[in-house]
């Protein structure tokens, strides 16, 4: 790990996760195609439940070797980064003018 990787932009981290998802699982996520932020939140929650299910069904500390667990964690992290750090910056805000 390079020390510079600790202080990276959200867009860079998101791009790295999306690249990993595509190279490992052949999965492409297009956030621009999402109908709403609520849809992304529900997808985030669904993968959180999937991750929890895998943890419960696995023996102690063996879920890390499960590719479905890895996929669920990466998808959940990508959605989290998009919702908390990337999407808020894209919202056009209007300045309130005092009259």
Plain-language structure description:
With 99 residues, the chain is mainly alpha-helical. The protein has one domain (10-81). Helix content is 62%, strand content 0%. The chain is built from three helices and no strands. The protein has helices spanning 10-25, 37-57, 67-90. The longest helix has 24 residues, at 67-90. The protein is globular. The model has no long low-confidence stretch (mean pLDDT 82).
Helix amount, in percent?
A: 55-70%
General shape: globular
Discrete helix count: 3
- Biggest sheet descriptor: none
Q: Strand portion, in percent?
A: under 5%
Task: Please write the string of helix (H) and strand (E) elements.
Answer: HHH
Number of strands: 0
What is the total domain count?
1
Chain oligomer state: single chain
Derived structural class: mainly alpha
Radius of gyration: 17 Å
- Stretches where pLDDT is under 50 for at least 5 consecutive residues are none
N-end to C-end Cα span: 53 Å
Please tell me the overall pLDDT: 82
What distinguishing features does this structure have?
99 residues; 3 helices; mainly alpha
Gist?
This protein is mostly helical and 99 residues long.
Layout of helices and strands:
Elements: H1 10-25, H2 37-57, H3 67-90
